[in-house]
Amino acid sequence: MSASKKPLPVVNPWALPFWEGARDEKLVIQKCRDCGKFVFYPRIVCPHCFSQALEWEQVSGRGTVYSYTVVENNAPSYFQDEMPYVVALVRLAEGVQMMSNIVGCDPYSVRCDMPVEVVFEKVNEEFTLPKFRPAEEG
Prior knowledge:
With 138 residues, this protein is mainly beta.
């Protein structure tokens, strides 16, 4: 199966800045001007204080693996050629969690609390996906 046939994200209007940032190889997430908390996934209102005063801010792209799984078996799909691969919940330094892939290492070397940093994988002219690779500790 061709990699170009993989499903692409569905982009809601309020999430467009996230995808535009990724296309420019910048990790941007929302921050509430009223309560000061970061928000991810993109929303229309702050889930902490219900304010609509959300703005976009470029973040460090650094974090740690909170949880993960190594996908070894996936019924026939467009991801079959990539097995095994890691799907992880990454806790960003800014405190929010983001689901992505861990790349650039042996899938079986991934562990909880492992430091990671964002990298970007260009899918096509429209989409670039933020993924994470192991980072130096400290």
